[in-house]
Design goal:
The structure is a homodimer. In chain A, about 20% of the residues lie in helices and about 20% in strands. By secondary structure, chain A is of the alpha/beta class. The longest helix of chain A is centred in the middle third of the chain and has 23 residues, at about 190-215. The interface of A and B includes residues 253 and 277 of A.
């Protein structure tokens, strides 16, 4: 387990020595991922459903200008703009950099209304199913994950440590963080079933926080899965599409990989199919478990899929 | 069968009284539908594969500026810009209107290099499978469809008559026309299997044209399916998402409709699910067969799905 370097959790004790006072739910960090956008709208129409006794939940639309134009972003991916230690990308007007700074000034640790826990809602064209993105593998996060998996066994756990997102994403606004990634959903569309499942998951998260804050005083959550080992898909890298000397893609994700997120790929297994019909095998020396396979937004990032290793981690207690 | 009013085919005789001299294959009419874009690129790398003895095939990228920015269009859907009888949308610079005029001046009936037959390549987030879009139900087109279905039984036939596309689409450049629509594919992505099937389909189309031009002199194509009735999904209308007074969507495609293109919907069957979880049934009085269900690009057009009636049509001989 890699030690966490920034925004370390103030407590790794699930008994509630430092309670969570404010939870932020963000939708539309990417403007064409409609599940989060419409969930936030729906929550805002009936805010009572988010109410819990021990903490306040606030909602936020991430990138309104990108939503208005139906694109992921305007100038740059907002979910890469929260590393304020990095030098600015350019001196010109930059919508997402300014947006990130505004959100940081509001919700960050020293902001006007700081938040303790950020839930950021995403969708993907890959076959993510219901994926939890975990930036820190601390006790709070792992026990939350165990609780959610007890409620929704199909949930998959992805540890983003090392991917960069633990430093530059929307989620960095909170010391506790959860990304919810659902798919496959084509960008610019809604899918009712995954919408409802995401909504349900958020309610489970809020219930867990209520329990966490209340410690022994709150109703028991059920212990069935909280001591079992968790299967975590740990980020280890990414693989680009085969390209020619001009930088143009020369192959597609192989049909045997399409929608096969979380499935093992052994050395030599088919990875890509060239436009001329030739299969390109996996060149690595050890098995990997690809995720984010054929995510539309990653073509321009040079990522055909992310590679993970599957590990088992005890959530502790 | 509705009579065709513009660009009537010069012949409805499959014996080849007016031969096809030039075929145009277009990809990237919509800039984020990558199957066509990369197929055209692939054809241009090995143009010999398109060569047939009795006609010339040319390829064309439809909307290069939209492709460069990864969007469907820049100013307006190019596939609605070919009705030159309609008044211009505005007097300002308009990329797609100018692009359509340029293509018309090149490939139209009185252009510099007129084409007889246009094949336009599309993809959709709906579960189209392999769909042929037919603007005219003339003998040439129906026999082509019968031939292709003989090669690929999963092909579905959609008659767009009455949808408007027979007047304003890229395909109107030719007196014979075929839209190829494959899905579900998220915009901005490639899917190897549907890419290969589309490529294969194009070769079958070119083989058919070769046969059509050659008449009895060419090799027999096989008669197995050419006299059987064809199942055609005839456009009869479209249905919008439920919306509130501000014009905002209030419901999603119902889970029982998602990906169920070509399946019958009877009065009262679930159509939408509101964000609050209520089911909205189909209000029509007669059964319909929806297609283009949950197509991303149609949210802004006010189309949750197109409605069709299923009919049987003899291809003649």
């Amino acid at each position: 387990m890699i030690p966490v370097s920034d925004h370390p959790p103030q407590t790794v004790d699930s008994k509630g020595t430092a309670s969570i006072e404010r939870v932020l739910i963000v939708g539309g960090t990417h403007g064409n991922e409609l599940t989060g956008v419409y969930l936030i709208n729906q929550f805002d129409h009936s805010p009572g459903c988010l109410a819990r006794s021990s903490f306040k939940t606030v909602t936020q639309i991430g990138n309104p200008r990108a939503i208005a134009q139906g694109t992921r972003y305007v100038d740059q991916d907002l979910n890469r703009c929260f590393n304020f230690l990095a030098p600015p990308l350019s001196s010109r007007q930059h919508y997402e950099k300014e947006r990130a700074k505004d959100l940081f000034d509001q919700y960050g640790a020293h902001g006007t209304t700081p938040v303790d826990f950020v839930i950021d809602l995403h969708s993907t064209t890959s076959n993510a199913g219901l994926m939890l993105i975990l930036d820190h593998l601390d006790s709070f996060t792992l026990q939350l994950a165990a609780y959610l998996q007890g409620k929704e066994p199909e949930i998959k756990l992805y540890s983003s440590l090392g991917s960069g997102r633990e430093h530059d994403s929307m989620r960095t606004l909170g010391r506790y963080r959860l990304g919810i990634e659902v798919g496959p959903i084509a960008h610019g569309t809604l899918q009712a079933e995954l919408f409802r499942k995401t909504e349900s998951l958020i309610h489970h998260v809020l219930d867990y926080v209520e329990h966490y804050n209340g410690g022994r005083r709150s109703a028991p959550l059920g212990e069935s899965s909280s001591t079992s080992a968790l299967t975590v898909y740990q980020y280890v890298g990414a693989i680009d599409y085969p390209k020619n000397e001009q930088g143009a893609i020369t192959a597609m994700v192989h049909p045997q990989r399409q929608f096969q997120d979380y499935q093992v790929v052994n050395p030599g297994d088919p990875m890509f199919l060239t436009f001329a019909g030739e299969t390109i095998g996996y060149q690595g020396k050890t098995p990997v478990y690809p995720i984010f396979i054929n995510e539309a937004a990653y073509y321009e990032k040079g990522v055909a899929m992310s590679l993970t290793q599957r590990t088992n981690i005890s959530p502790g207690n």
